[in-house]
Design goal:
The complex is a heterodimer of chains A (80) and B (404).
Chain A lengths: L1 H12 L20 H15 L14 H17 L1
Chain B lengths: L4 E10 L5 H9 L6 E2 L11 E2 L21 H16 L6 H4 L3 E5 L5 H13 L9 H5 L3 H10 L5 E4 L5 H15 L4 E8 L4 H10 L22 E9 H7 L5 E10 L9 H14 L9 E3 L6 H15 L7 E3 L2 H4 L6 H15 L1 E2 L22 E2 L4 E8 L3 E8 L4
Parallel strand pairs in B: 4-5, 4-6, 9-10, 9-13
Antiparallel strand pairs in B: 1-7, 1-8, 2-3, 6-7, 8-14, 11-12, 13-14
Helix pairs in contact in B: 2-6, 7-13, 10-11
The chains are: A mainly alpha (80), B alpha/beta (404).
């Protein structure tokens, strides 16, 4: 499940537990800056063998934004 | 009292052409060197760059010279020779022999390094070329400039990412001010279009997929460039004795470090660097007409730089012209500040301000006069050239028109 993977990677990055992450949390409040965000996306891209386009990067503000982007990309890949 | 320093020679090679004449005519025509990348590994997603597309090393160097010359050293030697010739010093062994050469680079000899790693890791070879170290070391360009041009004073490299050549230029000025040397060849060089380096920039998600539109509403990031630019700095007294033409006075410098985020620009830190440059040059804010911006075309830089200009220049900010020539020569990393200082010196000398190319309308928080699209004839008595590097390292140089 994409949500679980996103929570795991974020938790690992900020040295927390996946259960402590929710979809509504702003990335900034979790201490994730732009370099943190590209590092998290890099790990998720590797895990799912997908590519998050640069164009959507600036629209990732809360955890849910990452989950939705990944669900779309993973879904698209599955439907090919 | 410290000695005054002036600029008496210019050299450049980049995507806009192999000489300063080509560079300036193309810049002032508002033409960009950004073009599709054709000779890179198809696995690279970066599709555009300001490459020196027509450059042929064997037109400049013999087969006995090339084995020690990485591409970044080739650019350095070519532009250094042009700058010394422009200053009337190429055959003046007495002066050149005692001069300094300080050459900035952000990347060093990447072509050499990556070719070597490919042989080791990919091809499984167990030996590498014996000249790998002297050809690829970051100071190789400085050594090659020294060797090819006979410069025997203090010679070394500076590295501060995208501000490398600004720091080199400042170092040369300080050597002249202190009386250590009369003449310093200063500038920077980089050749970043290698597979590994392009993949690294790609991963950072700051490179545009189409072109560089600094300060624009739809700007989408920076575009890499390559090349070198060199300037001959000289004490005013030495220049007057020789009767050589002076482009501008190198009147002030300001440096600061953000001591903060590794990539995010800091308005406070860059404001300090600009303020220090003005103070060092004894310039009032309203005496400056032009700023050659760092102007990378990233969302973060362009807003921060605009805000810092407002903070430093106050009510004078709307009257300033501020353009990003990176929209035309690309971001040539360790060569950028030197390319931009050449443009700034020529803006003063010729009374023409180069434009920001590809400008498509002001982005949010970008409300200055960016000289969009077309060069502007305008007297420039004083100007700044900004450089704000990754790592939070800021360097700003102030030039004044030379009173001959």
């Amino acid at each position: 499940m994409v949500e679980t993977a996103v929570f795991e990677v974020i938790a690992s990055h900020i040295k927390s537990r996946p259960e402590a992450i929710t979809r509504e949390m702003p990335l900034e409040d979790l201490g994730i800056d732009s370099l943190g965000a590209i590092t998290i996306l890099y790990e998720l891209e590797d895990r799912y063998d997908i590519e998050v386009p640069n164009e959507v990067f600036d629209s990732l503000h809360v955890v849910n934004d990452i989950v939705i982007q990944l669900e779309q990309l993973v879904g698209n890949k599955a439907s090919v | 009292m410290m000695r005054e320093v002036c600029i008496t020679g210019l050299g450049s090679i980049c995507g806009l052409g192999p000489t300063v004449s080509d560079y300036w005519s193309t810049l002032t025509a508002g033409k960009s060197a950004i073009r599709p990348l054709t000779d890179v590994n198809p696995g690279v997603k970066i599709k555009v760059g300001a490459t020196a597309a027509d450059f042929q090393a064997d037109q400049y160097f013999g087969p006995n010279e090339l084995p020690l010359l990485d591409r970044f050293s080739q650019f350095a030697v070519i532009s250094a020779r042009e700058a010394l010739t422009d200053a009337g010093l190429e055959n003046n062994a007495a002066v050149v022999g005692q001069a300094a050469a300080i050459i900035g680079t952000g990347c060093g000899g990447k072509q050499t390094d990556e070719e070597t790693y490919q042989q080791l890791y990919q091809q499984g070879r167990s030996r590498v070329h014996p000249l790998t170290i002297p050809k690829g070391m970051p100071s190789a360009a400085a050594s090659m400039v020294s060797q090819h041009l006979g410069i025997k004073g203090p010679v070394f490299s500076t590295a501060s990412a995208c501000a490398s050549s600004a720091h080199a230029i400042i170092q040369g000025r300080m050597m002249i001010q202190s009386g250590l040397v009369d003449v310093a060849l200063v500038g920077g060089t980089d050749a970043p279009f290698t597979y590994g380096l392009l993949k690294a920039w790609e991963a950072l998600r700051v490179v545009s997929s189409d072109t560089c539109r600094p300060f624009s509403v739809d700007r989408s990031g920076m575009v890499l460039g390559e090349g070198a630019a060199m300037l001959v700095l000289e004490s005013e007294e030495h220049a007057r004795q020789r009767g050589i033409r002076v482009y501008a006075e190198l009147a002030g410098c300001g440096m600061s470090s953000n001591a903060g985020h590794i990539t995010r620009p800091d308005v406070g830190g860059i404001s300090i660097a600009m303020t220090r440059a003005l103070e060092d040059a004894d310039l009032a804010a309203d005496a400056v007409q032009y700023i050659n911006a760092h102007g990378t075309g990233t969302v973060a830089n362009d807003v921060a730089e605009t805000e810092a200009v407002h903070r430093v220049f106050g009510a004078h900010a709307p009257s300033l012209m501020l353009s990003s020539t990176k929209s035309m020569h690309g971001h040539a990393l360790g060569a950028s500040s030197a390319l931009e200082l050449v443009a700034t010196a020529l803006a003063i000398y010729n009374g023409v301000v180069p434009p920001t190319a590809n400008f498509s309308g002001p982005g949010e928080g970008c409300d200055l006069d960016y000289v969009p699209g077309t060069a502007r004839e305008h007297r420039v008595d004083a100007a700044l050239s900004n450089a704000f590097a990754f790592g939070g390292l800021n360097a700003v140089i102030a030039l004044k028109a030379f009173d001959s």
